[in-house]
Amino acid sequence: MTTTSSSILDEYQRLHPASARLYEDSLRTFPSGVTHDVRYLTPFPIFVERASGSRKWDVDGREYVDYVMGHGALFMGHAHPEITDAVIEQVKKGTHYGANHELELKWARLIEEMIPSAEIVRFTSSGTEATLMAIRLARAYTGRDKLLKFDDHFHGWHDAVMGSRLPEQESLSSPGVPATVSSNTVSVPQGDAEAVDQRLADGDIAAVILEPTGAHFGAMPLNPSFLETLREITTRRNVVLIFDEVITGFRVSPGGTQAKYGVTPDLTTMAKIVAGGSPGGAVGGKADILAMIEFRNDPGWNAERRVMHPGTFNANPVSSAAGSTMLSLIKDGQHHDHANALAARLVPALNKVLNDRGALGCAYGLTSGFHISLGTEAPRPANGVEWSADEPPPSTPGPLVTALKRGMLNEGVDLMGGSSGFTSGVHTDADIDLTIAAFDATVGHMQADGLL
């Protein structure tokens, strides 16, 4: 652990000179020097050289306990031996056949076995593609154009789901998205069943889509009872219900949020864990909805009503090998028990640090995902982990998120987006011990810097 009394920023710059040099090159190659928005960090992000299990090492030779875990994709950690072996074996056989293959069938059958809504499956190459497909299928199936989503829920970066809603608006607004497109997306506050029912009564909504644990994989928790209410409303209004389980699928439970809470949507979008840390996504759901992609012995149907779905890397053999191996490893839930137990130990310990240091904020989570809110007085989970207050958790001001991210990196821990993270089936008690100590040191440095 570091013992310097210098500011978090000064220490960050001192500890990461090689990353700083590489970032100067990146600024000449990529917009803002990064290839993913979440990786942006001032004055520069770290550059990672290798990773294994729950740890990764940067180009300065510094080691980190990793809670980014491939943006949530690596439920079995970095370079898991069985997944790695499966990928290597497949690469030797070929990376792309341009044809059907047996592994894609094995992969899909595991999804159908684990995800309650998945009567049949179609593969994509990413989570964004999966939500795009689900929405298009719902529109084709219902013959309606509009989509209802919830404020702050994230569903990728295609036009139908991008942007935010001003208080006086119904539809989203986003640079680069034509108003004629965004006008087909309606956004309402999370958890407002009355607003949903009233809007669906107009009869022009094809689908309702949501993150079933709440916005930003539960950073704004959603009461599970709302899922039951939403299922009743959408069924009564003949609207397709889409659970976006790109993050929560295979994490909240082997069968996702829908299995944990017993609420089955019409369509489910998946990515991240489903592909075993490789590029890949999927849509699973009711057979009659996915049948909109089917070829039929009907030229009129095929030309005018069928939903087209190409995609060069859909269910490619390498992703199929990684994905089917991952799902085979985790389907019995034992690794979930381990990851959840670690998070259940970590979250109360983070809250104890805040309490002992007299710092405003709280930590909370659900199963193996956790979040940290700093700088505002907030109740702490009554049950140790899950948010239990009626009001939503306060958001953390941007400067505090940045300082927390830098400070934890200085102490050997990498958080997702600066204030969240994922435990996994390969994290250890030693990782948790290090993380608690790192958080204690970082909060102390933030207080010394006058931030908390």
Give a written overview of the molecule.
The protein is an alpha/beta fold and about 450 residues long. It has two domains: about 10-80 and about 335-450, Alpha-Beta Complex (Aspartate Aminotransferase, domain 1), CATH 3.90.1150; about 80-330, Type I PLP-dependent aspartate aminotransferase-like (Major domain) (Aspartate Aminotransferase, domain 2), CATH 3.40.640. It is built from 17 helices and 15 strands. The chain has helices at about 10-15, 15-25, 70, 80-95, 100-115, 125-140, 180, 195-200, 215-220, 225-235, 255-260, 285-290, 300-305, 315-330, 335-355, 400-410, 430-450; strands spanning about 50, 55-60, 65, 120-125, 145-150, 185-190, 205-210, 220, 240-245, 265-270, 280-285, 360-365, 370-375, 415, 420. The strands form three sheets. It has a seven-stranded mixed β-sheet with strand order 4-11-10-9-7-5-6, with helices on both faces. The protein is globular. Mean pLDDT is about 95; it is low at about 1-5.
